[in-house]
Design a protein that fits this description.
Blueprint: H1 8-20, H2 24-38, E1 44-51, E2 54-60, H3 63-75, E3 89-92, H4 102-112, E4 116-125, E5 128-136, H5 144-163, E6 173-174, H6 176-191, H7 195-209, H8 213-223
Antiparallel strand pairs: 1-2, 1-5, 3-4, 4-5, 4-6
Helix pairs in contact: 1-2, 1-5, 2-5, 3-4, 5-6, 6-7, 6-8, 7-8
Amino acid sequence: MSAERTTTTEFADLARALGAADGENDRLMLAVEAAVELIPNCLHAGVTINRGGHCHTLASSGELLRVINELQNELDEGPCHTPDRTEEVVVVDDLATDDRFATWGARVHAEHQLATVASILVFTARGYYGTMSIYGTGPHAFDEDDLATAQALAGHLAVAIAAGREIDGMGVALQSRTVIGQAEGILMERLGVDVDQALAYLKRVSSQTNTKLVQVASEIVRTRQLPGA
């Protein structure tokens, strides 16, 4: 991740703000606002929950995200409308031509002049799941750095929500693999290792500290610091 675009200090500030937020709605809005601020080509961002196959907008940078989600419901297709979604990251680089969500994508492009969407899974539960989505105007609007930033934001949000016990209190299981994935990305960047080596590192720290793997990963995502650093 480019230090010029998204710094450790910015993520640390966001983590503190998420931790100090009064409630879930404030946490969601902080994450959405951070996406628009920290990802250069992100014009719109939102957090969506898919409950029983229907998209509900929990937080958004503007009314347009609600319109886009309603279009997913109307057309019964879209990255946040996929039943029982398990893909952690779904990227559509050209909404006008991609055939995965052909009707919805073409309408979003034609009616709202948006061409790229990236949707990151934040949590899952029986019968529903939550995502963070970012939208840009031109095709291929988001590069690897942008996607890494979006994934890190989703990881921060997942950790903050779990820590606040707001989702846990509703019986929702935190999507552990998402948080572990964010931690692996940080380790790969900091240590210059591949994904298998990053996971081995997490397991080693978990064993040495007698701490659950997801808790080790959550702390790395929250602080963006290596254990013991």
